[in-house]
Specification:
The protein has 130 residues and is of the alpha+beta class. It contains six helices and four strands.
Length: 130
């Protein structure tokens, strides 16, 4: 799995700890140092089935400074993807990319459901969750 995160983000830190506790093997990628490309974001959006807006960090300073709440509706998907690819701080984090799923933000129940759906059952979940 690929875990795209910002190390200084408290939510990302919680998600990373959660993954470590589950024994989930992940490749770590700092979203600020190595931000996603437009091609990656396009593929992740398609694989996730989520609207592109879910990939924007709507609570971030950059999002607000650029006035994106008002600008995004008038932009094409390609323009939005290109914009997202310019700055990792515009991208919702963390992002977890695995075989059969792409998750944005950290919601433990959603992550557990995705793990179960693809057959990843950490030992502490026990036999009942299988």
């Amino acid at each position: 799995m690929l875990f795209v995160y910002y190390p200084k983000c408290s939510t990302c830190q919680k998600a990373k700890k959660w993954l470590e506790e589950k024994g989930a093997p992940c490749e770590l990628r700092d979203i600020k140092e190595d931000h996603p490309t437009a091609e990656e974001l396009r593929a992740w959006r398609v694989a996730s089935g989520l609207p592109l807006k879910r990939f924007f960090n709507t609570s971030g300073l950059q999002y607000k400074a650029l006035g994106l709440k008002d600008k995004l509706p008038g932009m094409s998907e390609e323009e939005q993807l290109a914009l997202l690819a310019t700055d990792g701080m515009l991208v919702k984090r963390p992002i977890l990319v695995g075989d059969g799923f792409v998750l944005t933000g950290f919601r433990p129940a959603e992550w557990e459901e995705a793990f179960s759906r693809v057959g990843f059952h950490p030992p502490e979940w026990g036999e009942a969750s299988r």
